[in-house]
Amino acid sequence: MAKVPVQFTLNGAEKAEFIDSGTTLLNALRDKIGDTSPKGGCHQGTCGACSVIIDGELRLSCLTLAETCNGAAITTTSGLSEGGVLHPLQRAFLDAFATQCGFCTPGMIMAAKVLLDHTPSPSREDVVEALSGNICRCTGYEPIIQAVLTAARSNSQHAA
Amino acid sequence: MELRKSYFADQRKDDLHEIGQPRPRSDSPSHVTGKTAYFADRNFPGMLHLKMVRSPHHHARIRSIDTSEAEKHPGVVKVLTAKDVPHNVYTILILIQIGPEDETVLADSKVRWKGEAVVAMLAETERAAQEAAAKVKVDYEVLPAVFDMEEALKPGAPLVNEYHGQNHYLYDSGECRKVRFGDVDAGFAGADHILEQTYQSSPIEHAPTETTGCIVAPEGNDRFTCYTNTQAMFFTLDNASIILQMPGSKLHFVGGTVGGGFGGKVDVIVEPIAILGAKLTGRPVSFIYSREEEMQISSPRAAEKVVIKDGVMKDGRIVARKVTGYTDAGAYSRHSPYGAQKGAGHYPGPYTIPNVWIDTYCVYTNRTPSSAMRGFGVTIGDFALEVQMDKLARLIGMDPLEFRFINAYRDGDMKAHRQPTEGAALIECMQEASRAANWPVAEKYLSMSSYAKGA
């Protein structure tokens, strides 16, 4: 099968690969580039575990063709901490016991980051709405919601 | 968090270092940074993908299987049928002598539930495996199916599983697991009221976000490494050893973080066939359930039916309890004979009842095989029992919490299955619940203790 080239930045680093046409961004990231932080939970856009940020917007990488991402800036949870220092969202998830099996966590953090990037001081309803596309089957939603609200507060304290 | 120190004060040690202290989870830092390694976060060069051809029928005889077109499909490397599996008929609990072996890894002469694995397709890509699977021709003779436990137990019902010979598991105690304690007929005869109710539940799917699967890599020395999200590492290793007729020393199982299990990943389903595929091709094999397979194929919690008959006195004492429990195993045993047995021990609940009669049946039907899930065998029973307790309290006009105090088990009470009660704390839990929920009970219940009656 003829390969197609894709080129984008992943967490700030240049990436270029040849892929089969029709490869999802999720499979390209996991199998070709080796970033396994986005998870495949359903491969049909319902669980949110594969969520990544493309050019500032939350996207389901299992429903995004890799070849449509040429020139894009892609962010995943594995790229959030800087110099070994956790992102405020990662810190808040850690402190709030907002992880159990951990499989939904990278997608949850992506959804939360896009929320806080657009809405620095969200209401509880904003958080619930922003996470509504992400399933946590361990049903630890309440600590997750609290973690996002805590991260928002710590962000605003930094800003002030 | 508040620790109530008034309960069991004489047993309490106050030099505890961990209890009452928040401790960070050791796995959280890798979860929040996306570094946790799940079984599927591995990729081997030349890895094959396994897809199953599954039965479209609930119950059918297999007349013939034609894989010739599938084998010609581009990308197909190997096609496996029942004859390729060294020990094709197995049962998980044979490891603890709970037989008979009653389930096929790949169906040979019959399929007994819709979705049963018939042919395994190994191909260069997932897509090729899927496309080739669709080209397998299986000639089925559809048989009558039975989906209801009571129908399955009637004479003349279609026989689901020939390895059992009848549509229920045969315990050493007979057609059901039995508990007999006191004289239940005398208990009912002396009761002020009798209440018989039937409770039913549907199968429940665990639906973990990470689907069931494994990746197997040949080590090049007749040894195979199996990366798996099983919740039952050694059960799986030992069953794989039996199914593949390979010594355990040839199998290297690597577990790790499971992306949600809840009991749904204790069956031995994906590993043996994936290892066989790796053995016969010499290549790494990935066998990962699709979301549809996770929902339709992986075993759910069993459907249950619980019939409870209680004799109760006006003063609140339960004097007799008769329970008939039915556990729907689906087409194969897996863990259900054990679940039904647990129910037999559990149905008196945390209550002391002098006269008890319990029968629990593990029933075979043409439904998806059920298996373990969080407290299987007792969780549905608890639902039934506690609803029954509320109904009994209402029947005699008593507060439901006070009714439970009267019947609560305490240290020294003999349970129906002949285990004396030790370390009971139900009274104290209910006392605290009464306060926490602001559900007042009479003072005499607040002065009760689990230590002994009348204490």
TrEMBL record, chain A:
Xref: Pfam families: Fer2_2, Fer2_3
What GO MF annotations does this protein's record show?
Answer: 2 iron, 2 sulfur cluster binding; electron transfer activity; metal ion binding; succinate dehydrogenase (quinone) activity
Its keywords, alphabetically, are: 2Fe-2S, Iron, Iron-sulfur, Metal-binding, Oxidoreductase
Give, as one word, the top-level EC class: oxidoreductase
Query: Any idea of its EC number?
Result: 1.3.5.1
Q: Which PROSITE patterns match?
A: 2FE2S_FER_1 (PS00197), 2FE2S_FER_2 (PS51085)
Q: Which residues form the 2Fe-2S ferredoxin-type domain?
A: 4-80
Q: Which SUPFAM superfamilies would you find in this protein's record?
A: 2Fe-2S ferredoxin-like, CO dehydrogenase ISP C-domain like
Which InterPro entries does UniProt cross-reference here?
2Fe-2S-bd (IPR002888), 2Fe-2S-bd_dom_sf (IPR036884), 2Fe-2S_ferredoxin-like_sf (IPR036010), 2Fe-2S_ferredoxin-type (IPR001041), 2Fe2S_fd_BS (IPR006058), Beta-grasp_dom_sf (IPR012675), Diverse_Oxidoreductases (IPR051452), Succ_DH/fum_Rdtase_N (IPR025192)
Please give the cofactor(s) recorded in the UniProt entry for this protein.
[2Fe-2S] cluster; [3Fe-4S] cluster
Classify the source by domain of life.
Answer: Bacteria
Describe the family membership recorded for this protein in Swiss-Prot or TrEMBL.
Answer: Belongs to the succinate dehydrogenase/fumarate reductase iron-sulfur protein family.
Protein name per its UniProtKB record = succinate dehydrogenase
From TrEMBL, chain B:
The region called Disordered is annotated at: 1-34
Name recorded for this polypeptide: Aldehyde oxidase/xanthine dehydrogenase-like protein
Gene3D superfamilies xrefs? Aldehyde oxidase/xanthine dehydrogenase, a/b hammerhead (3.90.1170.50), Aldehyde oxidase/xanthine dehydrogenase, molybdopterin binding domain (3.30.365.10)
Q: Which organism is it from?
A: Mesorhizobium tianshanense
Query: Which UniProt keyword terms apply here?
Result: Molybdenum, Oxidoreductase
Quick check: keyword Repressor in the entry?
Answer: no
InterPro entries (alphabetical): Ald_Oxase/Xan_DH_a/b, Ald_Oxase/Xan_DH_a/b_sf, Ald_Oxase/xanthine_DH-like, AldOxase/xan_DH_MoCoBD1, AldOxase/xan_DH_Mopterin-bd_sf
Q: Where is the composition biased (Basic and acidic residues)?
A: 1-28
| Residues covered by the Aldehyde oxidase/xanthine dehydrogenase a/b hammerhead domain | 33-144
Coiled-coil residues are none
Citing just one GO molecular function, the answer is: iron ion binding
The answer on whether this UniProt entry bears the keyword Oxidoreductase reads yes
